[in-house]
Amino acid sequence: MPATALLRTARIARAALLAAGCVALSAVAATAQGLLRDAGIEHGLDRLARPILTAAGLPANRTRVLVVNDTQMNAFVVDSRTIFVTAGLIMRLENAAELQAVIAHEAAHIANGHFARRGLNAQYARNAALVGLAAGVAAGAASGNPGAGVGIALGTQSSAMRNFLSHTREEEAAADKSGMRYLAIAGVDPFALRGVLQNFAGQETLTPGRRDPYAQSHPLSRERLRSVDLTAAQLTPPDRDRADEIYWFDRLKAKLSSYLRTPAYTMQRYGRTDTSDAAVVARAMAHHKSSDLPAARAELATLLERHPEDAYLHELLGWMELEWGNVDRAIDAYARAAELDPREALIQAGYGRALLARGTAQDDARALDVLSAARARDPYDGNMLRDLSIAHAKAGENGLASLATAERYALQGKLEDAGVLAARAAGTLPVGSPAWSRAQDLIRAADMTKRR
């Protein structure tokens, strides 16, 4: 096939992935759930996932676990590079091994090719969106081009999407066995999967509307539990120091819980006699939410004395200071975090936001560099894309500003608006440039949505 035809085919395929990955109707906005993007939480999930992904033969540096902002319990995959776990499920789990069991089970669905055999396509994703919501494929991950894609719009009420995400009992049995094998290879107790499943005991006796989404998409049965017990009994994980994984589970769960729950609940759950790092993080978040910044600072100061080179503590301090409008303090904290972990895109995004807030010409130029680097590493952060658009506009780069806004709209499922802005951007960008190509992808994806 001629090179031009190959290029055209690739662009059409990429546009199809973009269309499949977005919710097309504004009516879903009330029910669609977003992602909770937090550098510290995602770092903790990565530390927990790495030994499991390695055991599964998946690329640990290119497969990530993201948190869905939903208090119901669920976990699922829709592509080969991303595992989604709801905040509600994480908060319900008792220990690191149980969260690793969830990751191992979903990794098994990837390794066994279950989602691929169900045949995700643009038409199905559109049909799911029409009845309320859609899970989107991250087009960059699927195509191997991180610049090509947009993120994911999620929800939990659509029967069509629930049917897509659901697994047969045969698939569940296979994922259970593979997942427990991965746990054992990674030195994690495979019986942890039983603890996860026991959270959903009795769900199958409820009416569908009252069941947790996890129970609907991962069918349970007493036979399945017996099979889990038999398989786990045959596996002997090697002794391994798991202190780091336990630490990060406790810390990410504490941070997530304190973010989503009331300060009163957090202070009761993580009392002052608890001096663990997880408890101190939780209390700092509670003080912040209670409008007591000095108390939040004091809690974080305690932690920074213990861990002065923890980038995620400096990032948390920077976020709090910026929330309170203390821009200079925020920049100092974010700069230190970025120095400690220059590869973390979410830290770079926060640093860029703080620089824009101070607003000098030098800060604006620096913000553009920082935010561009953040986008290159992780293009699925809506706040970063908003700030990148502002930075481009301040630099007089209106075409790139429109493109960043178009990508943010696509991330939110507003594909028609994204197409309009992408067309505006394409008219000012150099033909054939990477940015122009990204704009063309969005235009095609929007056109495909209109034609259906």
UniProtKB/TrEMBL annotation:
Pfam families attached to this UniProt entry: Peptidase_M48, TPR_CcmH_CycH
GO BP field: proteolysis involved in protein catabolic process
UniProt keyword list: Hydrolase, Metal-binding, Metalloprotease, Protease, Signal, TPR repeat, Zinc
Domain Cytochrome c-type biogenesis protein H TPR: 299-398
Any one of the GO CC terms: membrane
InterPro entries: Mito/Outer_Membr_Metalloprot (IPR051156), Peptidase_M48 (IPR001915), TPR-like_helical_dom_sf (IPR011990), TPR_CcmH_CycH (IPR056413), TPR_rpt (IPR019734)
Cofactor(s) of this protein: Zn(2+)
Highest taxon in the source lineage: Bacteria
SUPFAM superfamilies (UniProt xref): TPR-like
PANTHER family, A to Z: METALLOENDOPEPTIDASE OMA1, METALLOENDOPEPTIDASE OMA1, MITOCHONDRIAL
Name the record gives this protein: Peptidase M48
